[in-house]
Amino acid sequence: MNAYRMKPLAFPWPPFIYGAAIAAAFLLQAYFPLSVAETNIWIARAAGGVLIATAVILDVWAMRTLVDCHTTILPNRCSTHLVTSGPYRFTRNPIYLGYTLATAGIGLAMLNPWCIVTAMAAAALTSLVAIKREELHLLSRFGVDFERYCHHTTRWI
């Protein structure tokens, strides 16, 4: 099969990576607890809620944009269109950015500092496992248009 027709991923890893990161954070907090300052806990919980709400809005906006552009949401399917509108104007990976913000937000809301650590680890692993392959897929499908898009749009933020 040529690169143009090749799927970016054989399995949709990113949702599982972030799910595992959240589970790992709660296991780490249970066995290796990190203490949280007792002052202003409501600020951490409020900030966590804002991050989670931002993540949900970003993910829904990104998924809606993909549907409107008649291309797949699933990371293990071939893209039919290069999407550069909606949140894709600001970041090439708004869904993964949303996952990262949600993971960190859960940590703040639940007062679990490990979630912030595992959110960063999940973002790094997602970059290695998924984003690099997705970018190769998009480059093979859309060529110079994708290169131009990459030049003007950051990968994460």
Q: Give the overall shape.
A: elongated
Structural class of the helix and strand makeup?
A: mainly alpha
Number of helices: 5
Distance between the termini: 34 Å
Q: Helical percent range?
A: 55-70%
What are the segments in which pLDDT stays under 50 over at least 5 consecutive residues? none
The largest sheet, given as strand count, sense and whether it forms a barrel, is: none
The sequence of SSEs as H and E is: HHHHH
Total strands: the figure is 0
Rg, rounded, reads 17 Å
Tell me, rounded to a whole number, the average pLDDT: 91
Strand content: under 5%
Brief description of this entry?
The protein has 157 residues and is mainly alpha-helical. The protein is built from five helices and no strands. The longest helix is centred in the last third of the chain and has 29 residues.
Please give the structural blueprint.
Layout: H1 13-31, H2 41-68, H3 94-109, H4 114-142, H5 144-152
Subcellular location: Endomembrane system
Protein name: Isoprenylcysteine carboxylmethyltransferase family protein
Main location: membrane
Question: What would you note in describing this structure?
Answer:
With 157 residues, the chain is an all-alpha fold. The chain has helices at 13-31, 41-68, 94-109, 114-142, 144-152. It is built from five helices and no strands. It is elongated and about 50 Å long.
